[in-house]
Amino acid sequence: MKIIHLASGDLWAGAEVQLFHLAKRLARVKDISLLVVLLNHGQLEEELRNQGVDVMVLDESVMSGLAIFRSFYNIVREFQPDIVHTHRNKENVIGGLAAKLNGKKSIRTSHGAPEFAGSILNFKRFIFDSLDKLAALFLQQKIIAVSPELQEMLSREFSRSKLVMIENCVDIRYVESKSGAAAINIREKYPDAFHIVFVGRFVPVKRVDLFYEIAKAVIQHSSDKSVHFHMLGDGPLKSTIEAQLAADGLSTHIHLHGFVENVAPLLKQMDLLLITSDHEGLPMTLLEAMTLQVPVLSRAIPSIRRVLCDGSCGYIVESDKVERFISIIEGVMTDTTDVNARVAAARARIETNYNIDINLENYLQLYSMVLGRASKQ
Fold first, then answer.
1. Labelling 167: which of 26, 35, 252, 349 has CA 20 to 30 A away?
2. What is the pLDDT of residue 377?
3. Radius of gyration of the chain, Cα coordinates, nearest whole angstrom
């Protein structure tokens, strides 16, 4: 079986991390020929090459959209893949059309909420979102959702027969191997503190504003123990958070680390991962924290709630009220017996339900189904 994955590669976020885990395992499967084509140089390219995965880059910073399409069309014609597997909007359109014109099958993974929301007032976005939807409808055979909740959301746009649910997974051994010595030893720098972390893009859907308000309230009300908050990531709202930090004088307890290529060493040092998003697909950071036995506190996002078994593998907040978060955080800081039980259950859940071998087998079965073949690994 010959497979091409097409992705942007400009970020190192959940979609890219999941693609990395899948691609490096696919590359080791007998009788699989894999090529990953990216539209940007960056960490995903570097990580894949380090794992011996064949990678080509069609650099969108120097190539026009038409030039990228022509080049990818030629790659498909020369490589002759059985399946072109795409990730994100632009790649869906380019990959779906190139595959169709070459007589090849094409599928996509939807890593988050449907993005077909372009307003007619934003004409360029509207046109591109429309092309993406058309590609899904007429050029691609299957749409993979990374959670049942996302599959249900996508069913409002597409027939259920086109949808497949394959949840994200992690390579447990790889995550553990990447969680060694950190560039910053948080425990050494703040030995007696309790550490809470945010990991993600500084964009509205991640509710960095809510994380900041929770941090501010906890710091102001915590008298018995020093609490430090860490924000790992970058994005358009970072300058807003920086301005708030300066105005409130909280930079000694709220630390902006910027984009971190390998979050595992810092994540492992944390006492709590806090997820404040309005919605998520299935965050890789959640799975990594559970793997590393870092407690997780999240808003009641359906996909996360299900992974955390309604709270038996972590902590769930039913609202976005700061006071509710504070109450649970105080409990996590004091009841170590309860915390230990939940993180042990979380680690067991990863091993049983969310390890990369399950993910790999599911994708191999899907590829075989799309091609009308019997599945074999």
1. 35
2. 42
3. 21
- At the top level of CATH, the class of 177-353 is alpha beta
Give the chain as a 3 state SS string. Answer: CEEEEEECCCCCCHHHHHHHHHHHHHCCCCCCEEEEEECCCCHHHHHHHHCCCCEEECCCCCCCHHHHHHHHHHHHHHHCCCEEEEECHHHHHHHHHHHHHCCCEEEEEECCCCCCCCCCCCHHHHHHHHHHHHHHHHHCCEEEECCHHHHHHHCCCCCHHHEEECCCCECHHHHHHCCCCCCCCHHHHCCCCEEEEEECCCCHHHCHHHHHHHHHHHHHHCCCCCEEEEEECCCCCHHHHHHHHHHHCCCCCEEEEECCCCCHHHHHCCCEEEECCCCCCCCHHHHHHHHCCCCEEEECCHHHHHHCHHHCCCEEECCCCHHHHHHHHHHHHHCHHHHHHHHHHHHHHHHHHCEHHHHHHHHHHHHHHHHCCCCCC
- The answer on pLDDT for 115 being more than 50 is no
Could you tell me the pLDDT band of residue 171, with boundaries at 50, 70 and 90? very high
Q: How far is CA 114 from each of CA 44, 48, 81, 338, rounded to the nearest angstrom?
A: 23, 27, 27, 37
pLDDT reported for residue 376: 46
Residue 339: CB atoms within 10 A of its CB come to 19
- pLDDT per residue as tens digits for the range 8-19: 999 888 889 999
Other beta carbons within 10 Å of 29: 16
Which class is 2-169+355-371 in CATH? alpha beta
Which has the closest alpha carbon to 297: 149, 150, 197?
197
- Residue 131 token pair: 């092309």
Mean pLDDT of 128-137: 91
**pLDDT tens digits for 117-130?**
555 556 777 788 88
Q: What are the sequence ranges of the domains in the chain?
A: 2-169+355-371, 177-353
Assign 374 a pLDDT band (cuts: 50, 70, 90): low
Region of residue 12 (phi > 0: left; psi between -120 and 50: alpha; otherwise: beta): beta
Please tell me the pTM assigned to this model: 0.85
